[in-house]
Amino acid sequence: MGPARFFGRTAAVPGASARAAAVVLAAAAALLLGGCRNATTAPGAQAAVRIAGTVWQPDAQTVHPQGIWERLGARTLLVQWTARDGHAFVDGCPAAGAVEPPQPRPDWARIAREPWAQNVILGLAAHGDETAARASVESLVARSRCLAALATPLKVTGWYFPVEVDPTWKDAAGLARQLEGLPRPLWISAYDGANVGPAALADWLHGWLPKDVGVFFQDGVGVHARSAPVARDYLLALRQRLGPRRVRLIAEAFRPAPGGGFRPATPEELVPQLATYGGHEVFLFDGPHYVDTRLVEVLREKLVPAGR
């Protein structure tokens, strides 16, 4: 299953948990992978990167997500959406005029008990097509307000509105007015499809985005849109312009698969990527699809200091 469009590319919150355990990506870890063709020693590799959380794109394949991401330090779950097109993953708030076929619902009570979901940033109403989503912001906001008002057993610490922005969206500033109707803390995602550069993207967002709305930026490494060092430049520019509390980074934990689609990134690919983000909180995209138990254990063996 190829990942759905997310953060501005074909692929598949405030504050990440301050209690997320630090995953130390030291130079020794790079040495472990020194013989691997994809391994690099990035600046900042000796600083700790905090795996603050994981992302989950609910779908039929992962309606009952299972994982041990807490072993890497993750305590926050970003649920990308609770309704997408004609499908809902909660009861209530159906799309206008839609007749939704019966489908399994996630066991939200069980998810709320998972150590990797002690804090949840809850995604709201999404549309699978970006152009249609941007043209339907008003209706998506209306449905999102309904979804945000539903009671769940989750410890919701924020909401995510899944309509992505980039500088090619000429009316993106109009989104600011619509976001006023959604609860806070609120997050959106931004990407640089036009490659305007880190500073220009940060300035563009600063010019119209409400000051109480945060931004997730996906690194693009998994789809080879950019290298991890360039993604770090974007992160630093966004944090400087918008403020560090308003910006989070998504690390793509997948790579293109031969013949099409995507596969999980290998430890040899993922360790240098994460090492580049030393000193910053990171969310892994996405846990249920790409970061399985075996990968977690290998990463933990290579990266997590003894005793943690």
Short description:
The protein has helices at 27-32, 108-113, 130-135, 137-149, 173-179, 198-208, 228-242, 267-275, 287-290, 293-303, and strands spanning 5-6, 9-10, 22-24, 48-56, 76-79, 83-84, 87-88, 119-123, 125-126, 156-160, 186-190, 213-218, 247-252, 254-256, 262-264, 281-285.
Describe the structure.
The chain is built from ten helices and 16 strands. The protein is α/β, with parallel strands linked by helices and 308 residues long. The strands form four sheets. Strands 4-5-8-10-11-12-13-16 form an eight-stranded parallel β-barrel. It starts with a strand and ends in a 5-residue tail after the last helix. Mean pLDDT is 85; it is low at 7-46.
Lay out the secondary structure:
Blueprint: E1 5-6, E2 9-10, E3 22-24, H1 27-32, E4 48-56, E5 76-79, E6 83-84, E7 87-88, H2 108-113, E8 119-123, E9 125-126, H3 130-135, H4 137-149, E10 156-160, H5 173-179, E11 186-190, H6 198-208, E12 213-218, H7 228-242, E13 247-252, E14 254-256, E15 262-264, H8 267-275, E16 281-285, H9 287-290, H10 293-303
Parallel strand pairs: 4-5, 4-16, 5-8, 6-9, 8-10, 10-11, 11-12, 12-13, 13-16
Antiparallel strand pairs: 1-2, 3-4, 6-7, 14-15
